[in-house]
Every structure is written in C-alpha cells, then in structure tokens.
Amino acid sequence: MNHNHRAIERVLLITFALNLLATAAKLGVGIWTGALSLIADGLDTLFDGLSNVVGIAAVRKGSQPPDADHPYGHRKFETLAALLIATLLFITAWEVATAAIDRLRHPQMPLVNLWSILALAAGGAIQGCTGLWEMRQGRLLGSEVLVADARHTIASLYVSFAVLFGLGLVWLGYGWADPLLALLVAAVIASIGVETLLENIPALVDQATLDPASIAAVVADVAGVESFHRIRSRGAADDVAIDLHVRVDRRLSMQAANAIADEVRRRLLALPGVTDVTVHAEAQGGPESALELQQAVALAVGEEGLALHELWAQQVEDHITLHIHLGVDPNISLAEAHDQVDRLESTIRSRLPQVIAVHSHIETASADVLPSSRVSRGLQERVEAVVLSAAQNIPGLTDPHDIQVRQVEGQLFISAEALVDGTLSVSAAHTLSTELQNAVQAAVPNVGEVLVHLEPLP
Fold first, then answer.
1. Which residues of the chain have pLDDT under 50?
2. Domains defined for the chain, CATH in brackets
3. CA 249 to CA 430: how far, in whole Å?
4. What is the DSSP letter of 68?
C-alpha cells in the first residue's frame, strides 16, 4: 500500500495553488473580452484545481489503517476520487459544449487584445510546468490520483495552444473560430475523462490485477505444494491482494502444512505491488480419501431424495471419476428420474472440484414397507437344502443358518447367515457371499433377491 500519503497531499496542495493562479488569469481575461474559448480553457483549469481538493480528501481517507468496517483498508477511496475527477471532467465538457453550440447559433465577436495573449501564455506556462512535475511525482509515489490529475493538467496545455490559435483567427475576423475551439476543448476534456475511467474502473470492480500464470509460477516452485487452484488477485497496481488454495500431502501435520502456506505467502509478498496474500492449505485428495468422497456423495444423494446403492471412484493424476448406482422412485417417469440424476451430478461436481465426471446407473428404490407372506413348509425346506448344498461347494464358507424365505409381490426373497474366517478382508468375504447368492439364484426359480450376512468364526 502507498505509504507516502503526506508527500502526495503536499504535491496536490502545490498543484492546487498553481492551478488557481492559472485559472484567475484565463477566466478574468476571458470574461472581460467575451472570448468563449478562453473562458472554457479557464473552466477546465478551475475544475482541475477542484479535483486537487477532491484528491487531498481521498488521500487523507486512504491513508487510514484498516478497521472493523474496512478490513482491507481505505485504498479504494483514492480510486473513487479518480473516478470523481472523471465525473467533473464530463460536467465541464458538457457545459463548455452547450455554451459553444449556443454561441454558434447566436454569433458574437469577442475582443482579442494583448491581455488575451498574455493570459493564455502565462496560464499555459504555469499548467505545463505544473503538469509535468505532478506526473513525475505521481509515478515516483505510485499515486493514481496524481497521475490522473497530471494527465488533465498536461492536456490543458495543448488546449491553451489551440485556443491561442483560435484567438488569432478571431483577430483576423473569423468569429466562428472561437466557439469551434471551445467545442474542441470540450472534446479533449471528455476524452481525458474516458481515459481516467478506463484506468480506474478495473480496480473498483475487482478485476484481476495479476496474470494467474505469473502467480502459479511462484507457487509451483515451493517445496511441498502438491497442487493449487482458485488463484485470484484484485486491487490497484501498487496495492494487490492475492488469495489462493494450495494442496499438500494429507499425511502432513497441521504445523507442516502451515509452514508450506507461510512460504507461499512470503514469496508472493515479494512480488512488486503485492501487499496482502491469503493462502488456504488443503489436503491433497488420494485413494485413501475414498471414505470422504463417499460421505460427500451420500449427503448430496440424500438431499436429492435418492438412494445410494453403490459407488466406485477412479483416480488418474489429480482427477477423479465416479461411478454410482442410484435408487429412484419407481413411480416417476424416466425423464423425471434423469432430471434428478442430472441435478445430483452437477451438485457433486460443484462440491468436489477434483471430480471431473460422474457416471450414474439408475435403479429402482422404494421407501414403502412391502407386504410379505410365509411360504409353504415344502418350499422352505427345498430352499434350505439348496443353500446348504451351495455352501458346501464354497471353500471358506461354513455353517449356513437362519435361512428365511418370504414371498413379496410374487417373488421370493431369501436371506441367510454363514460363518467365515474373521481375518479375511471385507473384499474377500464379499466375494464368498456373492458366490453363494449367485448359486442360490441359479438353483431356485422366481427369486427376487438373495441376502447373505457373514459373521466371523468364534
């Protein structure tokens, strides 16, 4: 942030005094002689002086430290002042242009004498020297207000030369030259206002100040940074604020992650004009974070009113692809189901930036309690025999028991429990239960579902 507020204020006070001196010369002689172009030039100089006053107030406000209401400081008050200067320029241009048009419609021959020439020469010399000095000081101090104001002051010098040429034509008898030169002054003033707007609006609307690629080049060189995203910058060229997210090894301690974030912050603060850096440290996602992925997906699925049956996650470098089986209400249309699933996929991708694709398989789900009935004793015994026989052919699966058979909406639902070695992995145990389920489904007709619950051996 610019810390030379007193120096900037001193430059503005000196410039204001010199502008008042030039204004007095131009306006005084212009009103006396009736030269509209000279009056316009004087008004231009007057508003230039008034803009100095606005700049002084803005610099004083901008020099205040951050507070509860302005946690990022008051630097934008200086940018706001530059925009106010542009507004004053547009007002001046409008007033001068309307007066010139009125003079063209009602011609009037102004008086041109030695005092007119001396007023322009003296005012132009004062403004020329003042503008060049103010521009140099503005660049040395990095002040938007000084640079914007100096540009107007320097432009006024060229306007004075044009007015001097116009007064020469008036002296030769061409009275129309005076209002035409006044229109030219109005156009110059308006163009300076546009240029000031274009230079200061980006800072006011938080347009990116630095190229993200230049920030990324600094961050990528920091040891321990696995990846980074959401790089943003804003503010004036000499008061740049940066914030970004960096990912580090999820196995690192909080202290180690903070040390990496601090090094990123230190290097970015060394860039020219950067005064504030916020670094968010995150754990780099990996295969070991599958449970977190499932929890996040399950939350989104529940919000959409769907049922999550199965989920697979595949990772290639920093990108993850999800494959999910979703249960939907069987009473809705296929189009409605697809709309629900599309909304869910969009929600997942927005909440999990590392997920680049979601592939969904739609299945039916029911929240209703389905009526069931017991089957005949003969059917119960036949199913039990099939389960016992199938279990004998599956090594590692023993003691099938608590075999239940129910009939639901014309289909058989079979459940059973069995014992396995408790040291088996969940994946290996799941393979054994799947083998039993497939064997029973192949041997018993009209089966809707087979559920096998495995328990560890005592």
1. 1-3, 287-288
2. 5-204 (1.20.1510.10), 212-283 (3.30.70.1350), 288-364 (3.30.70.1350), 372-456 (3.30.70.1350)
3. 32
4. S
